[in-house]
Amino acid sequence: DQQEEQGDDKLQQQEEKNPGNILKKPTRAFLMEIILSHHEKRVSQMDSISSMPLYPTEDILWDNNVVPSELYFGERVLALPKLNLQFLTYHDYLFRNFNLFRLESTYEIRDDINDCCQRVQPSINVVDGTVRFNGWARMGHPIVRFEIKSVKKPRLGEVKPAKVIAEISIDLAPMKSDIQREWEGLKQHDVLFLLSFYDTIDSQHSRIAKKQKLTEERAIAQENGQKFVPREMIDAREWYGLRHVRGCEIVAIKDVTGEVVEDGRFDTAQKERKGTVRILRVELDAAQYYLDKLSEKDGKADIYTTFNLVMRRKAKENNFKAVLSTIRDLMTQNIELPNWLNNIFLGYGDPTKSTPQLTIQSTNSNTNLENDPENNNNN
User: Fold this and answer.
1) Helix, strand or coil, per DSSP, at residue 51
2) Torsions phi, psi for 307 (to 5 deg)
3) Whole-number average pLDDT of the chain
4) What is the pTM of this model?
């Protein structure tokens, strides 16, 4: 070992003297890394999908390498998973659909968040340094209080918590009557998004300058009779001071007295709601919560104390979580398709000959040939 360390030191000194030369002899650390990477246990695809958060975060929403922006004009090939005419297995078909639907829903959620941030107009309060909202949005509302209520222990063989429950308090008093009815229409299993804004005076000045420049470019395009196309994608993190995005699912709704007024049952929906304060009991993504707590050990702040806006989406467009969860559950189960459907589903065989009736007829004809005595004598 001492000789190897001395040899590594000599190679390092030679490299420092002649940085252009390539080391002919690999170092001990390099060889150990190769051996370890070769023999380490690989994480299976199913394990990685099962531990994957279903709600998009700020890192994925505004990553052009993962989700292309609306400024894409077809001049380059996108690194997106493709749906072929043929698939290797039933699992391969579900896996491709899972990835594509996840990216499609992320693209739509990003547009909704950008629109909500543009309407609420967050800015910094110079006096106390807090974030205030100068506008209002139909789909977004400030949070009065956010609190983690319970974190259940992980199931056997898992590292993420079994369930993470939190409560969001909002006040519907400032809303108009029609918008207030829409928020009162929230029910169990509806998906919400928690937004965290943290602004600074420098970023606020920079954002104002960007908006003025964008306004001038739009005015010039209108004068020339041209369609205005922004040069870069609007990133809510740079334009509006958005820092974190986390998803959650409603479990129950309480009024100001703590009485449950919505939990999926008919009798609770008929109760009279008192006051204008609503307490939304939600379930957070346990996988994402586990990852956030791991990042706190690396020195990052607790993001679950910084949420100050809750955003909802239209019910018809907000079913992505249920779809992704269903596809993921199907991938973990051993499902066998009928023989007449399996090959056609994967893109093989003749579609005209793959029907239940024809399959039954061919099976009966083969059985008759086997039971025919003349045929057996000839054989």
Assistant:
1) coil
2) -70, 135
3) 81
4) 0.77
In eight-state DSSP terms, residue 235 is: -
Place of tokens 């589903």: 345
- Token pair of 34 as six digits: 């190769």
In whole angstroms, what is the distance from residue 44 CA to residue 232 CA?
38
CA distances from 156 to 151, 160, 161, 325 (A): 15, 10, 10, 20
Query: What DSSP designation does 62 have?
Result: T
Q: What are phi and psi of 279, to 5 degrees?
A: -110, 110
Q: Residue for token digits 């009991």?
A: 281
Closest CA to 116 of 250, 309, 320: 309
Out of 173-177, 217-221, 375-379, which region has the weakest mean confidence (pLDDT)?
375-379
Distance CA 310, CA 307 (A): 8
223, amino acid identity: E
Helices 90-120 & 320-331, crossing angle to 10 degrees? Answer: 160
**361, amino acid identity:** Q
Residue partners of 369: CB distance under 8 A and separation at least 6: 375
Max CA pair span of the chain: 102
Measure CA 184 to chain center: 26
Asked whether the beta carbons of 289 and 267 are under 8 A apart, the reply is: no
CB neighbourhood size of 206 (10 A): 13
> Given this model, what pLDDT does residue 7 score?
56
**For residues 145 and 156, is the Cβ–Cβ distance under 8 A?**
no
**How many whole angstroms separate alpha carbon 188 and alpha carbon 184?**
12
124 is written with which tokens?
A: 């910094």
d(CA 187, CA 133): 26
> Which residues are bridge partners to 73 per DSSP?
none
Cα–Cα distance measured from residue 229 to residue 221, given in angstroms and rounded to the nearest whole number: 9
Which residues, in sequence order, are CB contacts of 363 under 8 Å at separation 6+? Answer: none
**Secondary element (H or E) of residue 141:** strand 140-142
**Element of type H or E holding 171:** strand 164-171
Q: Nearest CA to 247 among 198, 282, 293?
A: 282
Q: Name the residue with tokens 């199913």.
A: 46
| 345-363: pLDDT as tens digits | 888 877 676 666 655 555 5
- Runs of H (alpha helix) within 1-57: 2-17, 28-39, 45-50
